[in-house]
Design goal:
Strand content of chain A: 5-15%
Largest sheet of chain A: 5 strands, mixed
Structural class of chain A: alpha/beta
Order of helices and strands of chain B: HHHHEHHEEEH
Largest sheet of chain B: 4 strands, mixed
Number of strands of chain B: 4
Helix content of chain B: 40-55%
Strand order of the largest sheet of chain A: 2-1-5-3-4
Distance between the termini of chain A: 53 Å
Number of domains of chain B: 2
Oligomer: heterodimer
Helix content of chain A: 25-40%
CATH class of the largest domain in chain B: Alpha Beta
Structural class of chain B: alpha+beta
Largest interface: A-B, 17 and 15 residues
CATH superfamily of the largest domain in chain B: Glutaredoxin
Strand content of chain B: 5-15%
Chain lengths: 594, 158
């Protein structure tokens, strides 16, 4: 441990801790802008400057390690003046249209300007005239507002290993853009939206589609449609943060009530279709595993039926199609819960409710920007004969809609979702966290293989925030080896091992692999409320597993409504009808479209 | 990514073979590519990316950081006008403006006939001759605006 003093307060910190870490421990807040706890310090902005007592030299606290006996001053007249100047210089290249900005009142630069009492424009405005890029349809890049903090670039390259964006040019003309200044939609961007979740200002943000939803909800007369909504597991444990509630507050039943007040005609839960996904994907896994047991795992690895890789995450699907197209046969053909629900609403439910599917407007609430892309990814997303999910909006967009509608979310009474595609099991809930899809699949795979129920359904080895998790599960004489990876940058080492095994004729190290593009899984999605840190992600995950433990059924195959859907409509998991509506396929896609 | 549709000379290929493994070799390789093509064609950047396993975004980060690297094909004759301190004080900006006006181009454009482009450069190493410009390998010192049409005409008919 190292001893130091922050403004005279003695603190002990671990070796390698920065001045910023030490200050946090001493309950001293040093203002920052480019710094983000998910990322290694970049030291671009200079707002976090401090000095060692008795020295005139300014140090950036985000990247200065504490030395033994250091005495740090974080606040004096000159430091405040310097910070103010830095903020004013940044503001001199930043548009003043805060009122129309998507980050209004939720902007780190605006907050700094307010806290430092910036009341005048001290430097002449030098705005950059750069075009807005909305080509992905999921996230929008407005380089004019960029403060060049570098967070998005570090996220895209280091956390996600996608390399869609980079700093191009230098000095005053530095800009964030894809290689060769092509549009984002033509770059390797996988639309995970982590750049938008990490951007401190309004330079990268989700494509706001709330108007499309309001238009559908408000429409009257012959053109009015039946508006149906589904909500993903991760949304319910994060939405509260946008209403000032602590991270990990579970608002499921209040959100159902809010949907009714917004005017939705039917309320379904994506947790239900997560159960459906498990039945389809679990059946697919058991089939592939049985084949591998008969023909040998090395042969199954060679012909790419093993390992099975989950495909619920659309950003991950996009990444695989661009970076690992040789893995296409390994991918589960089961659609994601969003798309399964979409297909079921416009076929099964439409028939049951006697509504023309052409007259249904289907909305999904997702923690994710890539889900916007998934709604029209390929022709299988139109399996009902119509676009299965009409609009997908993020948690952040839902928060705005609820506020606009004057709904007092926090104090609403609770209510239930609609039947039969509302009630769900704990296995459906945990889809929202890293390891959850794997755990849910194992709970049901065990039953599908053995015909027996598990005594303990908790597979804690696949839970938690560490980047790659491995486990081995004994199912009827077979040790099923599984791996779980989240945060795109962690995927490579898992897949490279599979590829190496395949190319050298060996057995794959794992039978089943779960991948989620965002850190912590969907609860850390690119469309979630701003400011996620590992502390917040852990609280959201906790809420997910608490919810799981409090459900009547913990395994997807136990869901009586799932049984009903198969009995009345889908026949059996993997049936012809299930394949038509609930499965998809994948293709190799170029990294750069242009 | 589809295989980039461009041919490298065998010298360039073996240079990339050698330098692709060294840390910090990217700039060296880009120098050679620009030496071969006169600029860094998009296809060449993609091919390099595939050969050495570096993301295209990283390559473009470096290419656009250094003024020296060009991403569009320059004119047959590159007119480099020095805007270093001495030349600038001696009115080199006027030379830039006048040359652009004579040639009818802006920024780093190339004339329609593909003959000329103008580069603003920093210090050609002969400040005593300020203001200085260079066409190809030929250096012109103490240049005035009035001399520009003659200098340009000389290359137009080469």
């Amino acid at each position: 441990m190292i001893n130091c003093k922050i403004n005279g307060i003695a603190v002990q910190v671990a070796e390698g801790a920065t001045v910023l870490d030490a200050a946090k421990k001493a309950n001293v807040k040093i203002p920052t802008l480019c710094y983000n706890p998910d990322l290694s310090p970049w030291a671009a902005c200079g707002i976090c400057v401090v000095r060692v007592e008795g020295s005139n030299k300014m140090l950036r606290s985000c990247c200065t390690p504490v030395a033994e006996g250091m005495s740090i001053v974080t606040n004096d007249a000159e430091l405040v003046e310097i910070r103010k100047t830095v903020i004013e210089l940044i503001l001199s290249t930043h548009p003043d249209d805060c009122l129309q900005c998507p980050r209004n009142q939720d902007c780190e630069l605006q907050t700094l300007a307010q806290e430092f009492g910036i009341r005048k424009q001290s430097f002449p405005k030098r705005l950059r005239d750069l075009p807005v890029d909305d080509t992905t349809g999921a996230i929008i890049l407005n380089p004019e507002k960029c403060v060049r903090c570098g967070r998005c670039v570090t996220v895209c390259q280091q956390m996600q290993n996608v390399w869609a964006i980079e700093f191009l040019g230098r000095g005053e003309s530095t800009r964030i853009a894809p290689a060769a200044d092509v549009a984002l939609g033509e770059s390797p961007c996988i639309r995970c939206g982590q750049c938008s979740a990490h951007c401190p200002v309004g330079a990268i943000y989700e494509n706001d589609q709330t108007k499309e939803v309001w238009d559908a909800l408000m429409k009257t007369g012959p053109d009015a449609k039946t508006c149906v909504v589904q909500i993903a597991p991760a949304v319910r444990v994060a939405l509260g943060e946008a209403f000032g509630l602590p991270a990990g507050t579970d608002l499921t039943k209040k959100i159902y009530t809010a949907f009714r007040r917004m005017g939705f005609d039917a309320i379904f839960d994506t947790n239900f279709s997560a159960d459906l996904t498990i039945l389809e994907e679990g059946t697919e896994f058991v089939k592939r595993l049985t084949g591998a047991l008969q023909g040998g795992l090395a042969a199954a690895t060679k012909e790419r039926s093993m390992p099975l890789i989950t495909s619920c995450c659309p950003a991950w699907v996009d990444y695989m199609e661009k970076y690992y197209p040789d893995m296409v046969p390994n991918f589960s053909t089961a659609k994601s819960p969003q798309q399964m629900m979409g297909a079921m609403i416009k076929t099964f439910w439409a028939g049951k409710a006697g509504i023309d599917p052409a007259k249904i407007f289907s909305v999904s609430i997702m923690p994710c920007t890539a889900k916007k892309y998934e709604t029209h990814r390929d022709e299988t997303m139109y399996s009902s004969g119509f676009q299965d999910v009409d609009v997908s909006i993020t948690t952040r967009e839902l928060a705005r809609m609820i506020k606009q509608a004057g709904i007092d979310l926090v104090n609403l009474p609770e209510s239930e979702p609609d039947s039969p595609m509302g009630p769900y099991t704990g296995a459906g809930v945990i889809f929202g966290a890293t390891g959850g899809v794997m755990e849910a699949a194992l709970r049901s795979a065990y039953f599908l293989v053995t015909g027996e129920e598990l005594k303990d359904v908790n597979f804690t080895a696949v839970r938690g925030i560490s980047g790659i998790k491995e486990a081995s599960v004994h199912i009827k004489g077979v040790d099923v080896r599984v791996a779980v990876a989240h945060q795109m940058g962690n995927i490579q080492q898992v897949l490279d091992q599979v590829r190496a095994a395949r190319e050298s004729g060996k057995e794959t190290p794992w039978h089943f692999i779960e991948v989620m593009a965002c850190r912590g899984g969907c609860i850390g999605g690119g469309g979630q409320p701003y400011g996620a840190t590992d502390e917040i992600r852990t609280k959201r995950i906790r809420a997910i597993y608490d919810h799981d433990e409090n459900t009547e059924y913990r395994c997807s195959h136990q869901n009586p409504y799932i049984k009903q859907v198969y009995a009345e409509f889908l026949d059996a998991p993997g049936s012809h009808k299930a394949h038509k509506l609930l499965h998809t396929h994948y293709v190799e896609r170029p990294l750069f479209m242009k | 990514m589809p295989a980039a549709n461009i041919e490298f000379s065998s010298e360039l290929n073996s240079f990339i073979e050698e330098w692709g493994k060294k840390p910090g070799g990217l700039i060296m390789m880009l120098h050679r590519i620009q030496g071969e093509f006169g600029y860094i064609p998009r296809e060449a950047a993609e091919k390099l990316s595939l050969m050495v396993g570096l993301p295209l975004a990283k390559i473009y980060g470096v290419v656009t950081f250094y003024h020296f690297f060009k991403t569009s094909k320059p004119g047959k004759h590159r007119i480099a006008i020095c805007l270093g301190t001495a030349c600038y004080l001696k009115g080199a900006q006027d030379l830039v403006d006048e040359s652009r006006s004579i040639l009818g181009i802006a920024g780093e454009d190339v004339t329609d006939d593909g003959l000329f482009s103008i580069d603003e450069v920093r210090c050609l190493g002969c400040c005593g001759l300020a203001p200085v410009l260079q066409v190809g390998d030929e250096v012109y010192g103490k240049v005035t605006k009035e001399q520009l049409p003659d200098i340009i005409a000389k290359y137009r008919n080469l």
